[in-house]
Model the fold of this input.
Amino acid sequence: MFSRLRLTLSALALTALFAVDGPAAAATAEERPYPDREGRIAASGASVGERAARIALEAVGTPYRWGGESPASGFDCSGLVRWAYGRLGVALPHNSYALYGEGRRVSRARMKPGDVLFFEGLGHVGLYLGRGRMVHAPQSGRLVEVVRLAGSSYGARLIGARRVAAT
Done:
């Protein structure tokens, strides 16, 4: 329980740090994300990707579960991406290979929050948060977490990023 509390506090700190990144930082309380009638998150000023990245941060500390795509039952990597974008009304496949065909390719130098990151073999995905960080559901026995790409095995294995547009 202490470990989960510590992860939740870390997620809150990252959310606060993330909230000051980019153009949406000056938003008033009325402009910040709020759920619409269908429970999706809407906000003016923030891109769909930025909002999806913020939503994915809510899942930090949730257990990994193969095939999972909800905070109640757990997440696998593509399930986390599908859930975050789905809360915004963007339908994505629950499969890393199929996700690779979504949106448009983005160079590493131009990655923005919410870009979907792909790793060698296309067996793993995460959502870019900015400042060289990503949120992802790593593997069985682990929890959804935030990691730095540099200094982790993920940075060297990154093979691509895709920017998903609202549909």
Summary: The chain is about 30% helix and 20% strand. The radius of gyration is 15 Å. The domain at 2-163 is CATH 3.90.1720.10 (endopeptidase fold (from Nostoc punctiforme)).
